[in-house]
Amino acid sequence: MAEESDDRKPLLSKKLDKFFIGLNDAWIFVKRFFQEVFLPPYEFKEVVHQCYRIGVESLPLISLTGFIVGIVFTNQSRPSLSEFGAASWLPSLISIAVVRAMGPLVTALIAAGKVGSSIGAEIGSMKVTEQIDAMEVSATNPFKFLVVTRVLATTLMIPLLVMYTDFVALMGSFLSVNKNELVSMSTFFVQVFESITFLDVTSSIFKSILFGFTIGIVGCYKGYNSSKGTEGVGRAANAAVVMAMFLIFIEELLVLQIVNAIRGA
Amino acid sequence: MNLQEKVVEIRGLKKAFGDLEVLKGVDLDLYREENLVVLGKSGTGKSVLIKIMVGLLTQDSGSMSVFGKEVANLNKRKLNELRLKIGFSFQNSALYDSMTVRENLEFPLVRNEKNLTKKEINLRIEELLDAVGLPQTINQMPSELSGGQKKRIGVARTLILNPAIMLYDEPTAGLDPITCGDINNLILEVRERYKTSSIVITHDLTCAKQTGDRMAVLLDGQFGAVGTFDEVFPNADDERIKSFYDYNFINS
After folding, report:
1. Which residues are paired to B9 by β-bridges?
2. Which contiguous run of DSSP H or E holds residue A28?
3. In a domain, A46, yes or no
4. Measured between alpha carbons, how far is B8 from B29 in angstroms, rounded to an integer?
5. How many domains does chain A divide into?
6. Does a cis peptide bond (omega within 30 degrees of 0) precede residue A41?
7. In angstroms, rounded to a whole number, what is the distance separating the alpha carbons of residues B90 and A133?
8. B98–A122: do the CB atoms touch at under 8 Å?
9. Which listed site, A132, A174, B107, B175, has its alpha carbon 20 to 30 Å from B98?
C-alpha cells in the first residue's frame, strides 16, 4: 500500500511518538501473524520451500562456525582447567556451555545475519516494486504467503539448526580433546551426556524456537514496512539484522533468569 | 461500448497526502467495454485514482463506486470479490521475480479457483501466453524478459482471472516506440477478445490516441477536459492541455 504521510501534531515528542507508533505497528503485525497462522488456506508448499532455504542452505555456514567454535572454546578452556588439574572436565564444561548457551546463541546470530537480512531484503524489494500490491489486487493474501510461511519456517528450522550446531561443536571439541588428552569418543560422549540435564535441553529448544520466531518476524516486519526505493530495501535488511540480534540477546538474558529460577527451585 | 451502462462511477473524490492535495473532487464515469484514457503530468494523482478503485488506497471523501458497490465500504471478503473482477497491470509489471512466468500466472489462479485440475490450469496459462504472443517464455524468469515482454506477461497475469475491468498503469512507460505500438495493440485486442472495460493511465498521447475511446485530462487535481481525442486535444482552449498536446506531437 502506498505510504500515507502523517501530519498530526506530536503528542510527546516526534521521536517518542515515532517509537510508540512503531511499537504499536509491530504489535499489530505480530497479532496478525497469530490470527492468520491458524486460518486456511495453508501455504504448505511455500513453508517447505522456505524451510529448505532457511535450513538446508544455512548448513555449510553453520557447520563451519559450529565446528570452529567447538575447537576454539575447548582450546581456550584447556589452560585454565589444566592449572587446577581439571583438564578431564573439559567434555563436561564444553557440553554445558554449548548446549545451554553457545549453540543457540551462535546459531541464532548467524541466522539473524544470513536469514534475517535475506528475508528483510526480499520482502522489502517486493514491497518497493509493487509485487506485494500485485498479490493484494489479485485477491490473494500476501501476508499469508510471504510472512506466515517465512516465520513458520524460521521457527521450525532454527531449533533443528541449533541441535545440529550443538552436535558439530561437540565433534570439534572431541577432536581437540582426543588429540590432546587421548580421550576416546565413547568416553567423551558419556561425559557429555552425564553433564547435560533435561532442563538444559528443553530450555535450549525453547530458546531456539523463540530466536527463530524473532528472526522471522523481525525480517518480515522490516521488509513489509520498507519504503523509499532501493535505499529502503538496504535499510530494511540492515534493520532486520540489528533488531533481531538485539532482541536475541534480550531473550537470552530473560530465558537465563527463568531457567536459573527453575534450577534454583 | 455501451454508454448506458456505467461500470465505474466516481463522484467528488478527494485524496491528500499530508498537505499535498492530489485529487480535489474528481468526477468520472467508465462505461461497459469502453477504453478510457486518463492523462496528466507525473504526480497529478492518476495512479492514486486507480489504486483507490482496487482498495489499495482509500479516499478522504467522495465516492468511488464499482459495479454499484462503494469500494471504501466493502469488508475484506467483499473487496476481494470485487478485486477478482478488476485486473491491475502495474507500471513496472510487478512480476514476482522469484517465480517463472508459468508460476506468475498460476499464482492468482490456483488461489482463487481451487477446483481446477492441473490440465485445466496449464491450458489456461498456455492460452493466455498465446494471446499475448509469448508462449515461448513459459519457463523463463522475469529477469530474463525484456521490458515489453514483462508488460505483456503482466497483462496476461491479470487476465487469467477473467476480469471485467482492466486498469493499465503507464503501459508504455520506458518502452521503445515499436514496443509501445505492440502494447497499444494488445490493449485493443484485450478489449475485443475479453470484452473488458479499461482505464489506461498514461502521459503518452500516442498511446492515448490509439487505445482510447475517451480521454480525461487531469489538471491540478481535477479533470480539465473529458471527451474524444479530437474533442479534447487539437483545438484545446486550455493552455495546459494545448502544451501537453504540442509537446507530445510537435516537440518530441
Report:
1. B29, B65
2. helix A14-37
3. yes
4. 6
5. 1
6. yes
7. 9
8. yes
9. B175
Cα B173 from chain centroid?
A: 13
Residues written for chain A:
265
Q: Which residue carries 521490458 as its cell?
A: B147
A128, closest residue in chain B (CA to CA): B94
Read off the CATH number of the domain in which B177 is found: 3.40.50.300
Q: Which domain holds residue B13?
A: 2-251
Q: What is the predicted pLDDT for the residue at A230?
A: 86
How many structural domains comprise chain B? 1
How many CB atoms within 10 Å of residue B250?
Answer: 7
Q: pLDDT confidence of B121, banded at 50, 70, 90?
A: very high
Question: Which residue has cell 580433546?
Answer: A177
Which ranges of chain B would DSSP assign to H, the alpha helix? 46-53, 76-83, 101-112, 118-131, 147-159, 177-194, 205-211, 229-232, 239-246
pLDDT tens, position by position, B187-209: 999 999 999 999 999 988 999 99
| Grid cell listed for A192 | 557429555
Cβ pair A137:B56 closer than 8 A = yes
**Phi, psi at A78, each rounded to 5°:** -55, -50
Q: Can you give the three-state secondary structure of A124-165, one letter per residue?
A: HHHHHCCHHHHHHHCCCCHHHHHHHHHHHHHHHHHHHHHHHH
Backbone angles phi, psi at B200, to 5 degrees: -110, 120
pTM: 0.90
Of A5, A125, A137, the CB nearest to B83: A137
Q: Return phi, psi of residue A239, to 5°.
A: -65, -35
In terms of C-beta density within 10 A (0-12 exposed, 13-18 middle, 19 or more buried), how is residue B112 classed? middle
Is residue A178 assigned to a domain? Answer: yes
What are the start-end ranges of the H helices in B2-138?
46-53, 76-83, 101-112, 118-131
Residues in chain B: 252
| Contact residues for B134 (Cβ-Cβ < 8 A; gap 6+) | B101, B149, B152, B153, B156
Say if A9 is an interface residue toward chain B (CB within 8 Å): no
For residue B2, CA distances in Å to B6, B10, B33, B166, B213 come to 8, 18, 7, 16, 12
Distance of CA B67 to the CA centre of its chain: 16
- ipTM of predicted assembly, 2 dp: 0.92
Q: Please indicate, yes or no, if residue A224 is contained in any of the structural domains.
A: yes
CA dihedral (A192, A194, A195, A196) in degrees, to 10, reads 90
**pLDDT of A3 strictly over 80:** no
Residue A172 lies in domain: 42-264
